[in-house]
Write a structure and sequence with these properties.
The complex is a heterotrimer. Chain A is built from 11 helices and no strands. By secondary structure, chain A is mostly helical. Chain A has one domain: MetI-like (MetI-like fold, Orthogonal Bundle), CATH 1.10.3720.10. Chain B is an alpha+beta fold. Helix content of chain B is about 25%, strand content about 20%. In chain B, the strands form 5 sheets. In chain B, strands 1, 7, 8, 9, 10, 11, 12, 15, 16, 17 and 18 form an 11-stranded mixed sheet that branches. In chain B, strands 4-6-5 form a 3-stranded antiparallel sheet, covered by helices on one side. In chain B, β5 and β6 form a beta hairpin. The two termini of chain B are about 30 Å apart. Helix content of chain C is about 75%, strand content about 0%. The relative contact order of chain C is 0.14. Classes of the chains: A mainly alpha, B alpha+beta, C mainly alpha.
Chain lengths: ~300, ~575, ~325
C-alpha cells in the first residue's frame, strides 16, 4: 500500500567534505585512539623537554646513581652511565619521529609518482619497473655507506653535523623504500585504468593529467595509506638498524632505535631499558596505523555516510 | 678485585684437579662457541684471530708460549738457547730438534721437510701469507736430518723465536699442501679447511663461517689425550648469546671472547654454571693524539700531514691536561669490570718489560685546569669553552661503533666539557675505520680528527716490532698511500735512534730497559699516546670443563689437549 | 600473454647485466677493506701482499669482467662437471670468497638448506595465518575478531624482529628451557627424535618471523577485501541467492588477491635474502647472514654474487607476479 507522499524532511545544510570526513573518522574508535596517542607522543617529545629538565650531574655523581629503577627523581630510571632515561627518551623521540615521517613522505611521494606513471603510461611501464627492480636488488648497506662517504662532509659543512646526518638518513631511507609502494600503486592503476569511468573520461577527451588527478589518485589512496603507515614503521626501524652500524647520528645523539640497541645487552638485567624505546616505537607505529585505517575508511566515499 | 681473585683461584683449582686417570676420548664431546664464526682453518690465510685460535687445535708449532709468556715445547724436544748450543753464538741461526716418532693425523711420519716446506709456503711472495712477519729476516730453513731443522737468519737476531713458534706459525703437511704454494694457495679449499695436523684434534667437517666438527686425533703423540672424543666449534651470534649459552643454559662448554658489560658478567657468574676467565697480554685501549692538523680547510694532500703541526695539541700542556681530566678507574668499572685494568703504559706487560708508570691513573681535574690556564687557554667570553687568540679549544674525537667505546666517549666528553673543551663525537663502522681504504676519509690512518680511540697490542712478549711503529718514517701520508702505523705522526729523532739501538741489543736486561724507556717516551714524557685501559681477553667456560688455562700470549686453546670433563 | 612473457624475459637479460654492473660499482665504491678484521699487528707491507694475492688491487673493470666470466662460464661448467663427470672447468680459477678463500657457490650450497627450511617455513606459516585473518577481518569489519586481528597485525610489525626474537629467547630458551638458544646446522633428520629436535630448534625463529610476515600480509589482504566487499557485483551475487561462502571465497577473494599476490611474490626473494636479523640472532647461518657478514668484511666477490642472485630472483618473481595478474584479473591487458 502506498502511503501518502511523505513530506520531504527539510534538507540538511550540506556539510563540507572535511566535516564529513572528520565525522566518519570519529566513528572509528581505533583511529581516535591512535590520534590521541600520537598527539600525546608528539607533544611529549616537543614540549616535554621544557617541562622536565634533569639535573646536570658531574660524572662521579652520575655514576653513583647508575642503573636505577624508576623513582620520583628519575621517572624512567637511569642507564649505565647514570643518565636520566626520561630525558633521553624525549630527546630520542624527537629525532625518531622526525626521521620516520619525513622519510616516509619521501618514499611515498616517489613511490606514488613512479607507480602512477608506470601504471598509466604503457611506454614508461617497462623502464620504470626495471628501475624498481634495480633499486630492490641494491644492497642497502653499501648504498648507505657510499652515500654517507660521498656526501656527509659537504652536507655537514653546509648545514651542520646533526642536520646533515638527518638529511642524509632521511634521503637514504626514502630512496630505498619507495619500491613497494610503487609496485602496489602500479597494480591498482593498471586495474583502475580499465574501469568504465576512466574509459568514459578518455573517450570524451579528458587530458591524461586530469584523469590521473581526479579519477586515479583518489582511488589509490587506500593502498597508499596502508603502504604509508607501514612506511613509517619501516623507516623508524631502518633508522635504528642504521644507528647500529654507525651510519646514523653522532653517538651522543640518541634515537629510539639507538636506545633499543644500547639496551639489548642489558635485556636480562634491566629489561625496562629495552621496553621503554620498544614500547615507544610500537605505540607510534600502532597509532599511525590506526589513523591510517580510520583515514582510509573516512576518505572512501562508498563507506562515508552509510 | 675480589671477583678477579676468586676467578683466578677457581681456575687454579680446576687446573690442579687430577687428570691422571683420563684416557683418550673418554669424556665425550667438547662444545665451543665463538661470536665470530671460523672462516678457514689455515692460519696463514686467516682473516682474523678466530681462525688462528680454531686451527691451534689441529696444527701445531715447534714451541708455544704459555700464559706467563715463557716458551714451552710442542713438537720440539727442548727450547734451543745460547747455553745449550741451539742458538749459534753469533745469533744468526737456531737449530730445533723434533721429538722422535711424530706422526700426522693421517698416519704418515712428520719430518723436518714439512717445516722447510711451511717456511717456503709462507715466504712465497705471491701467496699473500698473513703471518709473513713470523718469517721476516729468515735467509734459509734446512732439514739437516729428518728430525733437525736449522733456520738461518740474514743477520744477528736477538729474538730468534719467531718462525715456528706460537699458533701464528704452525707446521703444515708438505704432502697435503704441495700443490698449494704461491698464487694457488687460496684455491686448495679442502686443504685450507681440513688441514692435516699433529695437534690433539683433526677436522672431520667444515661449514664456512658456521661450524667446525672435529674428532680426537688417533695419531696424537700422547696416547691418553685428548680426553674428548669429538669437538665442535659453532660460530655466529653475539658475545651475549655465547656467554649465555655457557653460563646460563649450559649448552656449550667454552665461549671465546665474551666481552659483555660488567653487570652482566656478575649476574651470569651468579648463575653458578660457569665462570669467566681473563688473561692480560699487551692489549691497551688508548687515545692517540694527532700531532698534525686535520682541518678540512687545508688542501686534500696536506691534511693530517707533517706539513701542518696541530694548532692546539702541539702544546704538551694541553695534552697533559686532557689526560689528567680522565678517571681511568671509572672507565674500567663502567666498561670492562674484571676484564680490564687502568694503565699508563703502552707496554703493560709482561712485568719484566713494563715501565713503572702509574702517575696518570688518578684523575686530577684541578691540575688539568691549571695547566690549561698556564698554556693560555682561558674562557674569555664566558660561553663555557676555553679560547685563545680567537680560536676555540675544540676537539673532534673519533672511534669505532661499539657500545663500550660509545660509553667511554660519553664519559670523556663530560670530563673534557667540565675542563672547558668543546668536544664533537664521531663513531665509524669498524670495517671502514680499520679497513685502510685509501679513498675513505674515515680510516684511522688518515686520522681526519683531533683524537682517536682504539686498541692495539704486540703479538710477541718482546715488543720490538710494536715499538718501532712510532718511528718518523712510519707516519701515514699520501706518499705511502696512507699505509703507515705511526697514527699520531709522532716524530722524535731520539726515539728513532733508540729503536735502532734496540734492534742491535742482544742482552735481555738491556732490551727490557730500552723498551721501558721507549714506552715512557711516547707516554709520560710526551703524552702523545694516552693509554686508558689494559684490556684482557675475556672468555667463559662451564664449571664442568677442567684444565682451562687462559693465555694472552698465544692461542686461548693452546692447551686444549689437556682439557677434561670434571666429574 | 606469451609474447608479453617472452618480451619481458628478453628485456630482463640486459637489465640484469646493467644491475650487476651497478651493484659491482656500488660495492666497490663503498669504503672498507677485506683486511679490516686482520689484527693490527700485521704490518702494511704484508697487507699489501695479501691484497695482491686476493686480486683486490686490480682495476674495477678488470675485476668485473673476471667476475662475469667466473659467474657465467666457470661456475656452471664446474656444476656440469660435478654432475656428468666431464672436465670443462679443469684448471679454471673458481669464484672465491675473499674472507674464507672457499668457493662462493660452495658456501651458498652449504647455507641454502637452512635458509629455505627456517625462513621459508616462517614465510609459509606467515602467509597461511595472514590470509584467513585478513579475509575474516574484512568480512566482519569492526567486529571483535577484526579488532583483535588488527591489533595482532599492528603488534606484528610495530615490534622489530630483533626485539621480539630476543624476548622469545629469554622467555622460552633461558627461563623455560623449552627450546635451544643456538641453531645446529649439522643436525640431520633421520628419525623421529631428530625430526622433533629440528622442529624444536626451528620453533623460535619461525615464531618471530612468521608473526612479522603475517602482520603485513594480513593488512593488505584485509584492505583489499574491504575494497571489494562493497562492490556492486557482490550485492548482485547475494541477490542472486549465492551462498555467502561462494560470494566471499570465490568472487571477492579472487579479485582481492591482486595486491596481495604482489606483496607475497615480492616477498619471496626476501626468503633467500634471508631475514638477516633473525638469522643472526638465532645462529641460523643462512644466506642472509652470509650476505651481511660479507658486507661487513668487504668480501666483494661474495657480496657481488649474492646481490646479483637476489636481483635475478627479484626480476623473475616480478615477472611471475605480473603473469599471475593476468590470470587473476581478465581486465588487465598486457598486449
Amino acid at each position: 500500500m502506498t502511503d501518502a507522499p511523505a513530506v520531504p524532511a527539510p534538507p540538511e545544510k550540506p556539510a563540507s567534505a572535511i566535516h564529513a570526513i572528520w565525522r566518519q573518522f570519529r566513528t572509528h574508535k581505533g583511529a581516535v585512539f591512535g590520534l590521541v596517542v600520537l598527539t600525546f607522543l608528539v607533544l611529549a617529545v616537543v614540549v616535554g623537554p621544557w617541562l622536565w629538565t634533569p639535573e646536570k650531574l658531574s660524572v662521579a655523581k652520575a655514576l653513583a646513581v647508575k642503573n636505577q629503577s624508576p623513582s620520583l627523581r628519575f621517572p624512567l630510571g637511569t642507564d649505565q652511565l647514570g643518565r636520566d632515561m626520561l630525558s633521553r627518551m624525549m630527546q630520542a623521540g624527537k629525532v625518531s619521529l622526525a626521521v620516520g615521517f619525513v622519510a616516509m613522505i619521501i618514499a611515498i611521494t616517489l613511490g606514488t609518482l613512479v607507480g602512477v606513471l608506470a601504471g598509466y603510461y604503457k611506454r614508461l611501464d617497462g623502464p620504470l619497473m626495471r628501475l624498481t627492480d634495480m633499486f630492490l636488488a641494491l644492497p642497502l648497506v653499501p648504498l648507505l655507506l657510499v652515500m654517507v662517504m660521498l656526501f656527509r662532509d659537504q652536507i655537514a659543512r653546509a648545514i651542520g653535523p646533526e642536520l646533515g646526518a638527518f638529511t642524509l638518513i632521511v634521503l637514504a631511507i626514502g630512496i630505498t623504500s619507495w619500491m613497494q609502494a610503487a609496485r602496489i600503486v602500479r597494480g591498482e592503476v593498471l586495474a583502475l585504468k580499465e574501469r568504465e569511468y576512466v574509459l568514459a573520461a578518455r573517450s570524451i577527451g579528458v587530458a591524461p593529467r586530469r584523469i590521473i588527478l581526479r579519477h586515479i589518485l583518489p582511488n589509490v589512496v587506500s593502498p597508499v595509506m596502508v603502504a604509508a603507515t607501514l612506511g613509517v614503521a619501516e623507516a623508524i626501524i631502518t633508522e635504528s638498524a642504521l644507528s647500529f652500524l654507525g651510519l646514523g647520528f653522532p653517538p651522543d645523539f640518541p634515537t629510539w632505535g639507538r636506545l633499543l640497541f644500547d639496551g639489548m645487552q642489558y635485556i636480562q638485567l634491566y629489561p625496562e631499558r629495552v621496553i621503554w624505546p620498544g614500547l615507544a616505537i610500537s605505540l607510534t607505529v600502532l597509532s599511525v596505523n590506526y589513523i591510517g585505517d580510520g583515514l582510509r575508511d573516512a576518505l572512501d566515499p562508498r563507506i562515508r555516510g552509510r | 678485585m675480589k671477583l678477579k681473585t676468586a676467578l683466578l683461584g677457581a681456575a687454579c683449582a680446576f687446573v690442579m684437579a687430577p687428570a691422571a686417570f683420563a684416557e683418550r676420548g673418554a669424556d665425550g664431546e667438547l662444545k665451543l662457541t665463538f661470536p665470530q664464526a671460523v672462516s678457514i682453518m689455515n692460519p696463514y690465510l686467516s682473516s682474523g684471530t678466530k681462525d688462528v685460535i680454531a686451527s691451534s687445535m689441529v696444527v701445531e708449532p715447534l714451541a708455544a708460549i704459555d700464559d706467563q709468556g715463557t716458551l714451552v715445547t710442542r713438537l720440539a724436544t727442548e727450547i734451543p738457547t745460547l747455553e745449550n748450543g741451539g742458538v749459534s753464538a753469533d745469533l744468526t741461526s737456531i737449530t730445533w730438534k723434533l721429538q722422535p716418532g711424530l706422526m700426522w693425523s693421517d698416519g704418515t711420519p712428520m719430518t723436518a721437510d714439512d717445516a722447510v716446506f711451511t717456511a717456503a709456503y709462507c715466504m712465497d711472495p705471491a701467496g699473500g701469507c698473513a703471518q709473513a712477519t713470523k718469517y721476516e729476516g729468515v735467509a734459509s730453513v734446512e732439514a739437516v736430518d729428518p728430525t733437525t731443522i736449522k733456520i738461518t737468519f740474514t743477520g744477528p737476531k736477538p729474538n730468534p723465536y719467531t718462525a715456528f713458534v706460537g699458533s701464528l706459525s704452525p707446521i703444515l703437511q708438505k704432502a697435503q699442501f704441495a700443490a698449494c704454494t704461491g698464487a694457488a694457495a687460496p684455491t686448495c679449499t679442502d686443504a685450507n679447511n681440513m688441514p692435516v695436523g699433529t695437534g690433539p684434534f683433526k677436522v672431520t667437517g667444515f661449514a664456512v663461517n658456521d661450524t667446525v666438527t672435529l674428532e680426537a686425533n688417533p695419531n696424537y703423540r700422547d696416547p691418553a689425550k685428548p680426553a674428548f672424543a669429538t669437538a665442535v666449534i659453532k660460530g655466529g651470534g653475539d658475545a651475549e648469546g655465547s656467554a649465555r649459552a655457557v653460563m646460563e643454559t649450559g649448552e656449550f662448554d667454552y665461549a671465546w671472547n665474551t666481552q659483555i658489560p660488567p653487570d652482566s658478567q656478575t649476574a651470569m657468574s651468579a648463575a653458578g654454571k660457569g665462570q669467566f676467565v681473563v688473561a692480560f697480554g699487551t692489549l691497551v685501549e688508548r687515545i692517540e693524539m694527532n700531532m698534525t692538523d686535520p682541518s678540512p680547510d687545508l688542501p686534500e694532500g696536506e691534511r693530517s700531514t707533517a706539513k701542518h703541526p696541530h694548532p692546539i695539541l702541539s702544546d704538551i700542556k694541553v695534552r697533559t691536561a686532557l689526560s689528567k681530566a680522565i678517571d681511568r678507574a671509572i672507565l674500567v668499572e663502567v666498561g670492562y669490570g674484571a676484564g680490564g685494568k687502568p694503565t699508563c703504559n703502552v707496554i703493560p706487560g709482561p712485568d719484566a718489560w713494563a715501565s713503572d708508570n702509574t702517575g696518570c691513573i688518578a684523575q686530577d681535574m684541578p691540575g688539568a685546569m691549571a695547566l690549561l690556564d698556564e698554556a693560555g687557554w682561558k674562557d674569555s667570553d664566558s660561553d663555557g669553552i676555553r679560547d685563545k687568540d680567537g680560536k676555540k679549544l675544540s676537539i673532534l674525537y673519533q672511534t669505532t661503533v661499539n657500545p663500550i667505546r660509545q660509553d667511554f666517549q660519553a664519559l670523556i666528553k663530560d670530563w673534557w666539557t667540565e675542563l672547558g673543551v668543546e668536544v664533537e663525537l664521531k663513531a665509524i663502522d669498524p670495517g671502514v675505520f680499520f679497513g685502510g681504504d685509501a679513498g675513505s676519509p674515515d680510516t684511522f690512518q688518515k686520522f681526519y680528527a683531533d683524537v682517536e680511540m682504539y686498541a692495539n697490542n704486540s703479538d710477541n712478549p718482546d715488543p720490538e716490532t710494536y715499538l718501532s711503529q712510532y718511528q718518523c718514517k712510519n707516519a701515514p701520508s699520501p706518499e705511502n698511500q696512507w699505509q703507515g702505523e705511526n697514527m699520531n705522526r709522532f716524530c722524535d729523532p731520539a726515539y728513532d735512534a733508540k729503536v735502532a739501538e734496540l734492534g742491535k741489543t742482544t742482552d735481555l736486561a738491556t732490551r727490557e730497559k730500552l723498551a721501558k724507556e721507549l714506552n715512557d717516551m711516547v707516554t709520560k714524557d710526551s703524552m702523545t699516546v694516552i693509554p686508558l685501559v689494559h684490556r684482557g681477553t675475556l672468555s667463559a667456560h662451564s664449571n664442568t670443563l677442567g684444565g682451562v688455562i687462559i693465555n694472552a700470549w698465544d692461542s686461548e686453546l693452546w692447551n686444549s689437549a689437556d682439557w677434561f670433563r670434571v666429574k | 600473454m606469451l609474447t608479453f612473457t617472452l618480451r619481458r624475459l628478453l628485456i630482463a637479460i640486459p637489465t640484469l647485466l646493467f644491475i650487476s654492473l651497478v651493484i659491482f660499482l656500488l660495492v666497490d665504491l663503498a669504503p672498507g677493506s677485506p683486511l679490516s678484521d686482520i689484527p693490527l699487528t700485521v704490518p702494511p707491507d704484508v697487507r699489501r701482499k695479501m691484497i695482491e694475492a686476493l686480486g683486490a688491487d686490480q682495476p674495477v673493470f678488470v675485476r668485473y669482467v673476471l667476475w662475469l666470466r667466473q659467474f657465467f662460464y666457470v661456475e656452471p661448467a664446474y656444476l656440469f662437471d660435478s654432475w656428468f663427470g666431464t672436465s670443462w672447468a679443469e684448471g679454471e680459477q673458481r669464484l672465491l670468497s675473499w674472507q674464507s678463500r672457499s668457493p662462493v657457490f660452495t658456501i651458498i650450497g652449504q647455507r641454502l638448506p637452512q635458509t629455505l627450511t627456517v625462513i621459508g617455513t616462517a614465510y609459509l606459516v606467515g602467509v597461511l595465518i595472514a590470509l584467513p585473518i585478513g579475509i575474516y577481518s574484512a568480512y566482519r569489519q569492526y567486529s571483535a575478531f577484526d579488532q583483535f586481528g588488527t591489533l595482532f597485525a599492528m603488534i606484528g610489525f610495530s615490534v622489530p624482529t630483533f626485539f621480539s626474537g630476543t624476548l622469545l629467547i629469554i622467555v622460552f630458551a633461558v627461563w623455560l628451557g623449552w627450546f635451544p638458544t643456538k641453531y645446529n646446522t649439522q643436525l640431520e633428520v633421520v628419525d623421529w627424535s631428530t625430526f622433533v629436535e629440528q622442529l624444536r630448534q626451528m620453533a623460535l625463529p619461525v615464531m618471530t618471523l612468521g608473526l612479522a610476515n603475517a602482520a603485513a600480509i594480513s593488512r593488505y589482504m584485509r584492505s583489499s577485501m574491504l575494497d571489494n566487499m562493497s562492490m556492486d557485483y557482490v550485492r548482485t551475487a547475494r541477490a542472486k541467492g549465492m551462498s555467502e561462502r561462494t560470494v566471499v571465497l570465490k568472487h571477492v577473494l579472487r579479485n582481492s588477491m591482486i595486491p596481495v599476490v604482489t606483496v607475497i611474490a615480492l616477498g619471496i626473494p626476501s626468503i633467500f635474502g634471508g631475514a638477516i636479523i633473525t638469522e643472526n640472532l638465532f645462529g641460523v647461518n643462512g644466506i642472509g647472514a652470509a650476505l651481511i657478514g660479507a658486507i661487513n668484511a668487504s668480501d666483494l666477490p661474495m657480496v657481488q654474487t649474492l646481490a646479483f642472485i637476489f636481483a635475478v630472483l627479484i626480476v623473475v618473481f616480478n615477472l611471475i607476479a605480473d603473469v599471475l595478474y593476468g590470470f587473476l584479473d581478465p581486465r588487465i591487458r598486457y598486449d
